[in-house]
Design a protein that fits this description.
alpha+beta, Udp-n-acetylmuramoylalanyl-d-glutamate--2,6- Diaminopimelate Ligase, Chain: A, domain 1, Beta-Lactamase, 4 domains, five-stranded mixed sheet, elongated, CdaR-like_regulators, PucR_C-HTH_sf, PucR_C-HTH_dom
């Protein structure tokens, strides 16, 4: 059956139902959601069709609804025949049970029957309809109100990122993406990233805009188009909208959505920080054996860190490490992330992050990184971290590469932890033993002496001891090792032995 034309109005019944601020629930008549609403009336008349105009929305506590199912059917039919837009029935003890016959008739006619939440007064409906219709055919007000409603709902319901963006997409009939325009990665949990062709189009348009993103950019790839808008915040972010029809979204609405997405990005930032802090604590507790093995195993299982794991050591910028943590969090990949000195240590499941992903990330971030062999369980984490750090040491300080433990090491360096321990013991074993027995700091003195280009005065300043003490200790080291500081070969051997010792002991 075809509905009679409703009165004029820019707001529809659908807008009212989908506006979360009103908390309205559709009970029947879905086919009539596009009926226009010219006004919203609170009425206690048992025959509202005789008092209201076509296009009016009936607001009632429900006591005007008849008791008998047959009378309820006629009640709906009469309102439909009068061209009313729908009826909102609030929560009230005087409202009779709404029969299946009544709701079936409403579905057949396409006449919306809506349940109104007790917490929302009818005045809210009246204000919304009045404000929306005062703007004529401009849908921006309605859509902005819906965006604000979705933001409030997301805070109440703790929605996942994709569901939140999906709801905003339905408001403007666009497929929405929130990305980092530099790395071209999603900034919303569980969300996909547009094809790289759109990244190329974005960069080309950015160059035409003198390198600064304007308020809105129009992108075209093939026969498809999209709009981008910067998202103001602490990080580089932009909103990309792909219209699902021929109608472009209103820029004022997109701006409101961009502001809403900034809040979601902030929530992801907070989640990344919480995950990093708790992960760093667990990583340190594991490396320093502060917890019982059974407790550690349970904590790793709780974080879904089971099966084959790998440790990654990165000598990189803090912002690059933060992007790595965000990438894993958004993709739902469990991880631990902490620091040992200036080196970031990450632990992930081997199945989640293949070696190719590490190599791609190294190329993008241009960092130095080392990757351990696969290992199982927290008991082997210390060895894995040492493996990753040793692999990192084989990368040139001026280079950018991912080194695998035991692979591609220079021929003059040991390739494994076992070899590094042998190298350290062979060259420095007597010095290590002397320090242990005498309580001296010969190893520390040798490290400072070589770092200061064999300058006793500079080494003494670094160690806060007298220059003569440095000279005495160096002489003792030469005696114990059989190496001379005047021999370039001996000095090189001592230096690499110190590096091997540090790596074999590091956790």
């Amino acid at each position: 059956m075809t509905a009679r034309p409703s009165g004029p109005g820019s707001v529809s019944v659908r807008d009212i139902v989908e506006l979360r601020l009103l908390q309205a629930t559709l009970l029947a008549g879905e086919a009539g959601l596009d009926r226009r609403v010219s006004w919203a009336h609170v009425t206690d008349a048992f025959d509202p069709w005789n008092w209201l105009d076509p296009g009016d929305l009936v607001l009632t506590c429900g006591y005007i609804v008849p008791q008998e199912p047959s009378a309820q059917v006629r009640f709906v039919q009469n309102m439909f025949d009068a061209g009313l837009s729908g009826i909102v029935i609030g929560e009230d003890d005087r409202c009779p049970h709404l029969s299946d016959e009544m709701l079936t008739t409403a579905d057949h006619l396409g006449f919306p029957v809506i349940h109104g939440a007790h917490a929302v007064g009818f005045a809210q409906y009246v204000r919304f309809v009045a404000a929306a219709n005062a703007r004529g055919e401009d849908q921006s007000f309605i859509q902005i109100a819906r965006v604000n409603g979705e933001v409030m709902a997301s805070l109440r319901e703790t929605l996942a990122g994709t569901e939140f963006v999906g709801r905003l997409s339905r408001v403007v009939s666009c497929r929405l993406h929130v990305v980092d325009p530099e790395m071209w990665e999603s900034l919303i949990r569980g969300s996909e990233t547009p094809d790289r062709a759109w990244k190329d189009a974005y960069d080309a348009e950015l160059r035409r805009s003198s390198g600064r993103a304007p308020f809105v950019m129009n992108l075209t790839v093939g026969d498809r188009s999209a709009l981008t808008m910067p998202i103001v915040g602490e990080r580089s972010a932009c909103l990309i909208a792909f219209p699902e029809g021929d109608v472009r979204p209103r820029l004022a609405v997109l701006q409101q959505i961009a502001a809403a997405c900034a809040l979601e990005i902030g929530r992801v930032d907070a989640a990344v920080e919480r995950s990093r802090r708790s992960g760093a604590g667990l990583l340190n507790d594991t490396l320093n054996a502060r917890l019982e093995p059974a407790v550690l195993t349970a904590l790793f299982r709780e974080r879904r860190l089971q099966g084959d794991l790998r440790a990654l050591a990165v000598d990189g910028r803090p912002d690059a490490i933060e992007r790595l943590a965000r990438r894993w969090l958004i993709r739902g990949i469990p991880f631990l992330l902490g620091e040992i000195g200036q080196i970031a240590i990450a632990v992930v499941r081997a199945v989640d992050v293949p070696q190719a992903d590490f190599e791609e990330r190294t190329m993008l971030e241009r960092w130095r990184a080392g990757l351990s062999d696969p290992f199982v369980g927290p008991a082997n984490l210390g060895d894995a971290v040492r493996q990753a750090r040793w692999a990192l040491e084989t990368v040139s300080p001026d280079g950018s590469a991912l080194a695998l433990y035991g692979d591609s090491s220079p021929s003059f360096l040991p390739r494994t932890l076992a070899e590094s321990k042998l190298a350290a013991d062979r060259v420095l074993g007597a010095v290590i033993e002397y320090d242990r027995e005498q309580g001296t700091d010969l190893i520390k003195t040798l490290q400072a002496y070589l770092e200061c280009d064999r300058s006793p005065s500079r080494a003494s300043e670094m160690l806060f001891i007298h220059t003569q003490t440095v000279n005495y200790r160096i002489a003792r080291i030469q005696e114990l090792t059989g190496r001379s500081m005047r021999s370039t070969g001996d000095v090189s051997e001592l230096w690499f032995a110190l590096r091997a010792l540090a790596l074999s002991q590091a956790t």
